[in-house]
Amino acid sequence: MSFHGFAPPPPKRPAPPRFQSRLPPPPMPALPADVLSRIITHTLPRSHHLRAFTKRYKLLREYSLVCRAWRTVSQALLHQHVHLPRPKDAFKFKSANVPLGALIGRGAQTLRIGAEWESTAPSFHKHGYVLMPLLANMPFLTEMWLEEVTVDPAVLSWTQDLKVLHLREVNLQYPKSVYQWRLPHLHTLYLAGVSVLSEDESFLSTEPLFTPITLPSLTKLFYTWAPSNPPPGLELIGPQLTHLYLFRLPSTSTRQFDQIPPDLFAQLSSLKHLFYDIRYFSDIPLLDTLASPILSLELFYEIAAGKRVEGELVQLPLPDCLVELEVLFLPPPPPNEVKINSLQMMVPPEWREKLEEWIEPAEVREIEEREHDIGTDWAAKSWLRRTTEVVATEKPRPAPVAREQAVIIVEDEQQQSAPIPDGFVDDSDDEEMNELQPSGLDILAFLRNDAETKTDNFYDAEADDELDGEPIEIR
């Protein structure tokens, strides 16, 4: 029997499996909450500046919609930084029985009370009771901003974990003649326009604002004051300070600046970093009274004209703390920042020659970067970051001990016209000087143990401490 002409039989189909699971595939392992929190944190603005709050809140609200795990982490991060720009916002925290206030307060790490309190309800916060319900619900605060408010300092003692405190245009109102406040862990304090008041007739406003007992851990003090707000008595707290930022404002009526106490620097036995604004020529010799060698010294010199620098500054003795100097001339601000005469866009050659003679021997160089911050809270933070860079880039001291090096940065910065305070040389009869806008001088000196020094030119338009910029190598 022949099988020619017949097709081969089709292959057998594989038998279907006896059992096929209809369950979904196992889910991917979830990230731990702490890992997810760190990932989300890296996507948020690092700054606590007001302009960064909106962006931060928007991102966290979007993250909370991803899934349940992201929502839990995002809400915790959302409640870490609390901003209350208006008095009515504080009513959410007025009672500890309010679940929302207690929930947010337990996770809050920073608190900012904005400047709209005084203008919105000037009688709302005459006493410190406004902060009481807020701080009662926020036991874990580590940083706090108070701006244009009146507060009893005893209320601040409720935040025992507070490490950084910003006070701007704040009235400290004491019910008694004794200062009743203590912050054992506070290491950084910003004071600008702080006034001290009391209902007690025996109260003396000249008493020290703080002592080693009230602020035992304080090492960094940033103080900006006007003649109506003199320094709060640094003779007690001075020996424990390692960073001091001093900036003086003129009187609104006479444009006069307060004099620096002659024995101030002699009391700073632990000081390592100093920012010092020079308003009078008599301020320069005070640098010779520094009690200990410092790592960095930044001087801001603002006077009425470059010729006054040429004629008066260079005639003063060079401070002993500035032994070896390398001078770097910074360019003036861009034309779009300030209206100035085009003739002042360059540092006068005769001024350079006089300065070179004053600091001789020294090497004079040009750099293209310049600073943008003076006399503000952001400026203080920028200076603090620069001092950190000085310490971080410092090399081990070789053997034998190398003599200290210093770097001075001189900035020809244009300033607006202002009456000349006492202590300056008045050459207003000079017709050429009357035609030009006043100029200023900014000196930045880093005392180092080697010839290699770094300084950073930070600037960020969005946030105060989210700084950028490439470091400038100085060799």
Automatic annotation (TrEMBL):
Signal peptide coordinates: none
Compositional bias per record (Acidic residues), positions renumbered to this chain: 459-475
Residue ranges crossing the lipid bilayer per the database entry: none
Biased composition range(s): Pro residues: 7-27
Disordered: annotated segments: 1-27, 454-475
Tree of life domain: Eukaryota
Protein name: F-box domain-containing protein
Gene source species: Leucosporidium creatinivorum
